[in-house]
Design a protein that fits this description.
Blueprint (H helix, E strand, L loop, with lengths): L1 E2 L15 H7 L4 H14 L4 E2 L2 H9 L7 H10 L13 H5 L62 H6 L6 H7 L9 H5 L7 H21 L9 H13 L4 H24 L3 H18 L2 H17 L3 H15 L5 H17 L3 H16 L15 H14 L3 H14 L5 H17 L3 H14 L6 H14 L8 H9 L8
Parallel strand pairs: 1-2
Helix pairs in contact: 2-3, 2-4, 7-10, 9-11, 10-11, 11-12, 11-13, 12-13, 13-14, 13-15, 14-15, 15-16, 15-17, 16-17, 17-18, 17-19, 18-19, 19-20, 19-21, 20-22, 21-22
């Protein structure tokens, strides 16, 4: 257990107070803030014994850089921020060496760091399997739902925690919510905060649209960190309040949708812990305002993430929770997508019958066509996505021939403007062909994906290609395979952006 007296480094120069961290604590006492830290740690399966003394040492500047356990907790508490944003020095400047690169071998424990102080992407073997606990979306302390249900009363509620995420108020938020919100306005920061109005709500909604469009075209890796600024700005707008209730409703909905969009960027970039945190933030926002559409969306993405993270039972139950919320919305296309999310979970559980039943429901709902009740965020969901998600189900079940047929159709149907999805479906096709014993066709498809990588940055796609390359290694003599393997091997090593 990481104790309050153990840190990853000791100051080598006179301590400077950490004013940024002190500002994040706000009006809460050190003991109250320490309780929030411990609660956040439990949410992500971490163990820290944070107390008022530790908070005081951080604020006094005695702890220039926290150990890995505390780092992971702090970044979970303040999504989108870096250690520097929290007032800490970079790990490389404290330790005199570069941080360990992603993908290197196991990291040795630093002085004062204990087992359990995991880096953000380490697996946590030995922790209880969350699938062993019944899934209850309304369970305030359930392992699948990290935020408490009674947000207004619990001492570690999400409402209180969000107060520590704010910066200088609504004016800074509005300034950072330009197209993609990539810059701040120093002049705006100097003005006193004001309550948000229609222009701020519209800017937030536009930021969500822009992020989704750029992701569809180019993939998530290059966007994730850049999208942190509008997310911080969105919650600053919520904290500043709104001029009227209709605007407040738009702000809550927009902030929740933005949290989901940023969560998807993290998801597609392989940052599963970050994605889970963002999706839970959106779910908490939805429940505070009774927004069934936002809650269905949050559960939809949570189901997809659970499937990719190897938690298929959670995927099934999250998808079922999403369907319960979506029934009141009157959108057959949304019900179709959610049935596909459930099918993916059943496939992960190797339950072919359950998967097929969910696929039939998905196709039946899809055939009913569009309706005015279809959420705006579902513009990506057309026949190509239906085919692509069904391909993934059959691939998980090991039916490579059927999976390849659907993946090929998905790539053919996809709008040519959505380069990222074309690359994704084609990568799925290449992998299915390779595993189905058709190495020459697999190599051709994989080469088409390589041709798109100068336009698309997606760790998901790169991971799929790497898996295909491993499957094709024994077939180097097949037509085109050697060329693909050599070209793939020459790619620069993918890093986390």
């Amino acid at each position: 257990m990481a104790s309050s007296s153990e840190t990853s480094s000791q100051p080598e120069r006179p301590a400077r107070p950490n004013l940024a961290f002190r500002q994040l604590r706000g009006r809460r006492s050190p003991a109250e803030f320490a309780a929030l830290v411990r609660r956040a740690a439990r949410e992500i399966g971490e163990r820290v014994s944070c107390d008022a003394r530790y908070v005081g040492r951080v604020e006094a500047g005695e702890i220039r850089c926290p150990n890995y356990a505390y780092e992971r907790v702090f970044l979970h508490m303040f999504p989108g921020r870096t250690l520097t944003d929290l007032g800490f020095a970079s790990r490389s400047s404290v330790r005199g060496r570069a941080a360990r690169a992603a993908g290197d071998g196991p990291r040795a424990l630093a002085a004062g760091e204990t087992p359990g102080a995991y880096e953000p992407y380490d697996t946590q073997d030995g922790l209880p399997d969350p699938q062993d606990r019944p899934y209850d979306p309304l369970d305030p302390y359930g392992s699948h739902e990290p935020y408490p249900n009674d947000h207004l009363n619990h001492e570690e509620s999400d409402v209180l925690r969000r107060a520590f995420m704010t910066g200088s108020g609504a004016t800074v938020a509005a300034a950072t919510l330009g197209p993609l919100a990539l810059a701040t306005d120093a002049a705006a920061a100097a003005r006193p905060p004001r309550r948000a109005g229609t222009p701020e709500a519209a800017a937030l909604e536009e930021a969500v649209r822009r992020i989704r469009l750029l992701d569809d075209r180019h993939g998530a890796d290059g966007l994730y960190r850049r999208a942190a600024a509008p997310l911080r700005a969105a919650y600053a707008l919520l904290d500043a309040g709104a001029t009227r209730q209709t605007t407040a409703d738009r702000l809550h909905s927009g902030a929740g949708e933005l949290a989901i969009s940023v969560g998807w960027l993290a998801h597609d970039s392989g940052r599963f812990d970050d994605a889970r945190s963002h999706y839970a933030e959106a779910l908490a926002t939805a429940r505070m305002t009774g927004d069934a559409g936002l809650e269905a969306h949050a559960f939809c993405n949570t189901a997809f993430l659970a499937r990719d993270a190897g938690r298929p039972r959670e995927a099934v139950r999250a998808a079922q929770a999403a369907q319960r919320m979506a029934r009141q919305l009157g959108s057959p296309r949304l019900m179709s997508l959610l049935a596909l999310r459930e099918a993916g979970g059943w496939a992960g559980l190797a339950d072919r019958a359950g998967c097929e039943q969910a696929l039939v429901r998905a196709q039946t709902f899809f055939a009913r066509g569009h309706s005015d009740a279809d959420p705006e965020w579902m513009t990506f969901y057309g026949e190509a996505e239906l085919e692509g998600l069904e391909a993934q189900c059959w691939s998980t079940l090991g039916d490579w021939r059927r999976a390849a047929r659907h993946a090929r159709r998905a790539a053919e149907l996809q709008d040519p403007h959505f380069t990222r999805n074309i690359a994704l479906y084609t990568a799925e096709l290449a992998d299915d062909l390779a595993r189905g014993g058709r190495p020459d066709e697999a190599a051709q498809a994989a080469m088409r994906v390589l041709d798109l990588l100068d336009q698309v940055q997606s760790s998901r796609i790169q991971t799929m290609l790497a898996g295909t390359a491993r499957v094709l290694l024994p077939h180097r003599r097949a037509s085109g395979v050697s060329e693909f393997l050599d070209r793939h091997a020459s790619l620069p090593r993918a890093g986390r952006v």
